[in-house]
Design brief:
Blueprint lengths: L1 H16 L53 E5 L3 E4 L9 E5 L4 E7 L5 E5 L7 E5 L3 E3 L8 E3 L8 E3 L21 E5 L3 E4 L8 E5 L4 E8 L4 E10 L2 E5 L3 E3 L8 E2 L43 E4 L3 E4 L8 E5 L4 E8 L4 E5 L7 E5 L3 E3 L8 E2 L10
Parallel strand pairs: 13-17, 21-25
Antiparallel strand pairs: 1-4, 1-7, 2-3, 4-5, 5-6, 8-9, 10-13, 10-16, 11-12, 13-14, 14-15, 18-21, 18-24, 19-20, 21-22, 22-23
């Protein structure tokens, strides 16, 4: 009986041993927590340090007219560079060499000197002889540089340009009182008195011309020319035979600005307004009493007062000879003067300077463009 009990106990122990876990089973690997993150530590790269460079030297550059681009000039021969457009008494600043390129930004009134960018000069500009340069452009498109306030204060004026680029208008037959001349051969007609101005047409030899002005040395004559500025243009004096004495013509300077008053008129009629058909004198509104500080002038012929600085603007009235005017402005080329005029909108009108004798200095009056718009003052 005892043996039977012991066998049953052993059998029970064997059955229990079969349910124990296997001690050799692999332990499951722990899965990564869904919320776990990996932080990457980045080693900052070295920021490159710029190498020191020389600070560029700023060279003063001249004031160039807004829409005017410098032209390239190529030196055809070595030449001196000067402070002013003159050999005598003008400081030499250096030199330029054969085949060297320069930037040309203007020319003098005779077009025999060119104004260039020259960084070595104190103000960044200088002058060279035009004859030493092959200009890569039309010289007539360059600003004209003058010195109204002294040799060290250049003022660049806009180039004189024709109002129309189409075919020239035909010449009007000379009037009965015109001062006549005759073209001795084919004439090149220019917008101003010199080869530095744009050509705007030609006139055949033998053509009768209405003469309206001259340079003092008679090297260029002004004529009536419908396609010119204010109906005027210029031809070479040695190609014209005058039917009148040259001294009867008014004198202009090389900017086509009047220097002397209009020529004497035949007795019994008034002067032609701006060179047109003579008209009888009429009473017109008198300009107002001006501010005492304004410069004045005296009218030498019966002339129109216009709403702008050209004969194409509306006439606002007339002024008679010997009337006094007070000047409030002028165009850059000096051809037209703005004056006080009661009947004009804003109390201002425009008259042709050729028919005004100045009684005082007008160098301080403001400049206006060819449309009568105020311009920056020098």
């Amino acid at each position: 009986m005892k043996k039977i009990i012991l066998l049953l106990i052993l059998f029970s122990l064997l059955l229990a041993g079969c349910n124990l876990p296997d001690s050799t089973a692999a332990t499951p690997t722990e899965a990564a927590s869904p919320s776990a993150t990996v932080t990457l530590t980045l080693t900052p790269s070295e920021t490159p340090t710029p190498l020191p460079t020389d600070t560029p030297t700023i060279t003063p550059t001249p004031t160039i007219m807004p829409t005017i681009e410098p032209m390239t000039g190529i030196l055809r021969a070595p030449t001196n560079v000067r402070a002013r457009p003159s050999r005598g008494g003008s400081e030499r600043l250096g030199g330029v060499y054969f085949n060297q390129a320069v930037k040309v930004i203007g020319r003098n009134d005779q077009a025999n000197w060119l104004w260039i960018v020259y960084p070595e000069a104190p103000n960044g500009t200088a002058w060279i002889l035009a004859s030493a340069v092959d200009l890569q452009g039309e010289i007539g498109l360059l600003p004209i540089v003058i010195f109204p306030e002294g040799p060290d204060k250049p003022l660049a004026l806009p180039p004189m340009l024709p109002l129309s680029t189409g075919a020239p208008l035909p010449l009007n037959p000379p009037g009965p009182d015109a001062m006549l001349g005759t073209a001795t051969q084919l004439l090149n007609v220019r917008v101003g008195p010199g080869t530095g101005y744009l050509s705007i047409g030609t006139i055949p030899g033998g053509t009768a011309l209405s003469m309206t002005g001259r340079l003092e040395d008679n090297s260029w004559f002004q004529i009536e020319y419908p396609s010119g500025l204010d109906g005027r243009a210029w031809v070479a004096g040695d190609l014209v035979k005058l039917d009148v004495g040259a001294k009867l013509l008014p004198i202009f300077n090389r900017l086509a600005t009047p220097v002397t008053e209009a020529p004497p008129q035949p007795e019994g009629q008034e002067a032609a307004p701006e060179g047109g058909t003579p008209v009888p004198a009429t009473k017109t509104p008198v300009p107002p009493t001006a501010t005492p500080s304004l410069p004045s002038g005296t009218v030498t012929a019966q002339i129109n007062v216009r709403s702008g600085p050209a004969s194409s603007f509306e006439s606002l009235g007339m002024l008679n000879p010997n009337e006094r005017i007070f000047i409030t402005g002028r165009t850059l080329n000096g051809v037209w003067l703005q004056i006080e005029y009661t009947s004009a909108p804003g109390g201002r009108g425009w008259v042709a300077a050729a028919y005004v004798t100045l009684n005082s200095d007008i160098s301080k009056v403001p400049y206006f463009d060819n449309q009568g718009t105020p311009m920056p003052q020098p």
